[in-house]
Design brief:
alpha/beta, 11 helices, binds zinc ion, 18% strand, binds 5'-O-[(R)-(carboxyoxy)(hydroxy)phosphoryl]adenosine, five-stranded mixed beta sheet
């Protein structure tokens, strides 16, 4: 079965073609340049850019894969959550395409898509496992008893991990999205340079807004020259605090749930310090750890096509998934 996947929930216009065996094409047009002058994603600009790019991005994916539209068996598109105007572009385009091809259409929950990025590699993780899903909009620990059977264990009470990276990066004068740049600078810095708080110690949920406030106070205490001179140390301390909170709560969740497998997903899963710390814990505590290749961690359509394909094959269709207004919750139990 050949699937065409579409992702337009935020600031990436992405189309992918895949079958059960491999990704044949994954094209991602990033709108970073359109949004960078504003220091964050502007919803109206995102919607307009998706309208402009969706057709050329699809043409490119078809060209790379060597697949014709007449060979597509299924169309999948992100149904939510995300920016409503941005979602509507990809979702309507996908539904229209499916209708014209007279093929089935599947709406995919964006976070489930992130999780399914783990099924694009050579070695698929097998449930049961705990999933740590960390993106610009979400930070969630989910108990995955089976594919399509999810139970939310914890989530952030305020900012998501990626959002914390981005907001602190903005404060430090780094371009949006700042996660990757902070990680790059942190590699040369001292992790104990600043003492930053890990919030909600001993609790299941995450909170990153206090960390952001602490960083604001630290930066305001000093001159811009001091910040510039110590930028790599500040970034290393920030990265360490965010990663520390993620690792601590993940290990507690695994222990409480009695799971011996951990699966990472979402844009922040690109972070090498996070991967290294989770790998270290896996080695010393004897659990299995897996994460997608970085290209499938940040928003892309291959993960959406994979989730759509497996949903279609399993005919697991929880309420809301065919709608542009899906439930914000994607855990079924
Ligand atoms: O999953 P994603 O592409 O989009 C959402 O669904 O939100 O995640 C984007 C987030 C951004 O906040 C970005 O700063 C963060 O992932 N990110 C990183 C790294 N690469 C991307 N955060 C930390 N370290 C990285 N290397
Ligand atoms: Zn995402």
């Amino acid at each position: 079965m050949t699937v065409l996947g579409i992702e337009t929930s935020c600031d990436e216009t992405a189309v992918s073609i895949l079958n059960e065996k491999q990704v044949l094409a994954s094209v991602v047009y990033s709108q970073i340049r359109e949004h960078a002058p504003f220091g964050g994603v502007v919803p109206e600009i995102a919607s307009r850019a998706h309208v402009e790019k969706i057709s050329p991005v699809m043409e490119e994916a078809l060209r790379i894969s060597g697949i014709g539209l007449d060979q597509i068996d299924l169309v999948a598109a992100t149904a939510g959550p995300g920016l409503i105007g941005a979602l509507a572009v990809g979702f309507s385009f996908g539904k229209g395409l499916a209708l014209s091809l007279q093929k089935p259409f599947v709406g995919v929950h964006h976070m489930e898509g992130h999780l399914f990025a783990n099924r694009l590699g050579a070695k698929e993780p097998k449930p049961p496992f705990v999933a740590l899903i960390v993106s610009g909009g979400h930070t969630e620990l989910v108990d995955v008893a089976e594919w399509f059977q999810y139970r939310l264990w914890s989530r952030t009470r305020d900012d998501a991990a990626g959002e914390a990276f981005d907001k602190i990066g903005k404060l430090l004068g780094l371009e949006y999205p700042a996660g990757g740049r902070i990680a790059q600078l942190a590699a040369k810095g001292k992790r104990d340079f600043l003492s930053l708080p890990v919030a909600m110690r001993g609790k299941r949920d995450f909170s990153f807004s206090g960390l952001k406030t602490a960083a604001v106070y630290e930066v305001k205490k000093h001159s811009p020259e001091w910040v510039l001179e110590n930028l790599s140390h500040i970034c290393a301390s920030v990265e360490d605090a965010i990663v520390g909170a993620l690792v601590e709560k993940t290990l507690s969740a695994m222990q409480a749930l009695g799971r011996d497998r951990l699966v990472l997903a979402g844009g922040v899963a690109c972070n090498q310090w996070l991967r290294a710390k989770l790998n270290e814990a896996a080695q010393s505590m004897g659990f299995e750890f897996s994460a997608p290749v970085p290209a499938y961690c940040t928003d892309n359509a291959a993960m959406i096509a994979a989730a759509g394909l497996h949903r279609h094959l399993s005919s697991a269709t929880p309420a809301g998934h065919a709608s542009i207004f899906p439930s914000q919750d994607w855990y079924s139990i």
